[in-house]
Amino acid sequence: MKDKQQAIDDGQQAAFNDNEASVANGRWPVVKLFAHFFSYLFHPLFVPLYVTLFLMYVHPSYFSGIDNQTRLWLPFSVAQLSIFYPALTVLLLKGLGFINSVFLKTQKDRIIPLIAGGVFYFWLFQVCRNHPASLNPIMPSFTLGVFLAASVALIANIYFKISMHAIGMGGWLGIFLLIMQSNTMLMTWPLCIVLLITGIVCTSRLLISDHTSKEIYAGLLVGILCQFAAAMVLL
Predict the structure, then answer these.
(1) Residue 213 belongs to some domain of the structure
(2) In this structure, is residue 36 part of a structural domain?
(3) CB 179 within 8 A of CB 185
(4) Nearest Cα residue to 198 out of 163, 226, 152, 151
(5) What is the DSSP string of 11-55?
(6) Looking at the structure, do residues 115 and 3 belong to the same domain, yes or no?
(7) Is the pLDDT reported for residue 166 higher than 80?
(8) Out of 61, 73, 96, 216, which residue is the most buried by the measure of CB atoms under 10 Å away?
(9) What pTM did the predictor assign?
(10) Which helix (H) or strand (E) holds 169?
């Protein structure tokens, strides 16, 4: 009788485990889908444009005296130098066989794109710093921080595959922390939103990439510190 009851209990436990596994397997593709979605939506190439749009159209004073032509020109220039040219470089490298994947899955694949990205980001910094409309110093500071982050990422790439997504989100957090310290705008809700996005993006990278926690945390730290370093120079 006891053996019969034990067999029933074992059968129920096995059925429960199978049910749990089927639920997990059913949910996993959905989780991966959302992880890929947020990884693409908040790709590090897009972060400079998102920050620029925030500074221009959400912050109440940084670009209050800028003419309409500059308001149209600046986002276009940021998109051109931080998205179009770096993406084009990666596609050309893939087409010529210099890299194995456009997703830059290895440290070797990242070397030339990081160098090229650093060149484009420094170019963007020079454009913002020397613009005839005399842009608010926050913009040159932010772009300098992006250039510094790309440079540090190139050096760190020698030793480990630091997360570029985490660097991008760290830079976004860093510039928002600087704005908060300047007391030019109430940053409670923007900072909370970016913190939430940062958590989602970093979790997504842990789920669908081969990054370790160390590579994620290092990327966040680099992004934040480079924005603070740039601010010490220009703000």
Answers:
(1) yes
(2) no
(3) yes
(4) 163
(5) HHHHHHHHHHHHHHHHHHHHHHHHHHHHHHHT-TTTHHHHHHHHH
(6) no
(7) yes
(8) 216
(9) 0.87
(10) helix 164-182
